[in-house]
Amino acid sequence: MKAVRSNCRTLAPIALVTIGAAAWLALAVNVGAQTTAPAKPAAPAKAAKPAKKAPGPEYKMELEPRAMELLKATSAKLAAAKSMSFVATVGYEYPSKLGPPIVYTTRYDVTMQRPDKLRVLMPGDGPASEFYYDGKAMIAYAPAEDLAAVTDAPPTIDAALDAAFKNAAIYFPFEDLLATDPYSALTNGALLAFYIGPSGVIGGTKTDMVAWASNEVFLQIWIGADDKLPRRVRAMYRADPMALRHQVDFSNWQLDPAVAPDTFASAKAQAAGRIAFASPAPPPKGVKPLATGKAKAAAQPKPPAKAN
Q: Are residues 15 and 139 in the same domain?
C-alpha cells in the first residue's frame, strides 16, 4: 500500500494543474462574455418537453443451439478417446504491490488413459510438481524437496480427481475435459451460450469462438473448426472482486496414442520421503476453478515467494 500511496502523491500535482487550467479557461470565457456588448433580450422561449427515451431491447439469456452444438462436438471427441495427451499452459493473474495484476504461468504435461490412469507433470513459474494415478493409488510428488504424498484412490479418474480435491486441494484447470462425460461437466449450470465467430490466430489453426456463462463464471472457448479440440479457454469469476483473468492454452493434442505401462508410476516418487496427503492451506475465499462443471472452490497455484 505504501507504493500506491506514494504514486497517488506523485500524481496529485498533475491533477491540480489540470484542474487549475480548466478553471482558468472557464473564467476567461466568463470574463469575455461579460465584456461583450449586451444583446437585446430575446422573448422567453417555451420550455420544451423532454423527449422520451426509447426503451432499449431487453437482452435475453439463452443457450444458442450453434454454441451448444460446438460444445457437444468437442465433448464427444474427448469422450471417445480411450487415451490422450496434451499440453495445457495456464496463465493466471495475481495482484502486485502496485495494484495492477501480474501473470504467472504453469505448464501441465498431461497423459491419461481411460478409465483409471492419469499423469500430470507441472513445470512452471513456481516449484515443479508431479501427479500420478494408476487406478489404485494417487501420488503427489515434489522433486525439489524429494517428498511425496501417497494415498489409496478410487477406481476411476472422475472419482480420483474429486478425492484429490477434497482431501488435498489438488485441482487441475482442465478436469472437465478428462471427465467420462465432458459435455455434462462443461455445460452444468449454463445460463447463457452464444457463438462469437471464427478465429485463425489461436494455436495456429482455425477455431470457432463460443461464450458460455453461469451464475459463477464467464468463459470464452476457442474450439478447432476441423478437429473440434479445445485450443483456449479464458475465464472471469463473478465472486472475484478484482475480476482477475484466467487462461488455458491447449497444444500438442494426441488422441488414442500408445501409452507405455510405466507412464503412470514413478520410481523416484515411490522412493521419496513421505508427507500427508492433505491440503497445505485452505483455498482463498472467492477463488473458483477454471473448469465449469463442478461447484467447488479451488486453490490456485501459489506464486513465487518474491513477487514484484
A: no
Cell numbers representing residue 184 in the block:
455434462
Amino acid at position 249, single letter: D
Confidence of residue 203 (pLDDT cuts 50, 70, 90): confident
**Residue 274 to residues 141, 151, 162, 245, 266, Cα–Cα distance (Å):** 9, 10, 22, 35, 14
Locate cell 476441423: which residue? 226
Which positions ≥6 away from 223 have C-beta within 8 Å? 70, 71, 73, 74, 207, 208, 209, 210, 229, 230, 231
Prediction pTM value: 0.73
Rounded Cα distance, 93 and 246, in Å: 7
* Rg over CA atoms, the chain: 27
- Residue 297: pLDDT band by 50, 70, 90 thresholds? very low
- Tell me how crowded residue 297 is: count the other CB atoms within 10 A of its CB: 19
Q: Tell me, yes or no, whether 170 and 21 share the same domain.
A: no
> Cβ(207)–Cβ(198) under 8 Å?
yes
Q: How far is CA 103 from the centre of its chain?
A: 12
Segment 77-121, tens digit of pLDDT? 999 999 999 999 999 998 899 989 999 899 999 999 999 999 999
In a domain, 283, yes or no: no
CA distance readout (Å), 140 to 21, 109, 124, 167, 264: 63, 15, 16, 12, 12
Q: Supply φ then ψ for residue 33, to 5 degrees.
A: -65, -35
Q: What is the span of the domain harbouring residue 129? A: 65-275
Tell me the pairing of strands 117-122 and 129-133. antiparallel
Q: Domain check: are 175 and 260 in the same one?
A: yes
Residue 62 main-chain phi, psi, to 5 deg: -150, 160
Distance of CA 275 to the CA centre of its chain: 30
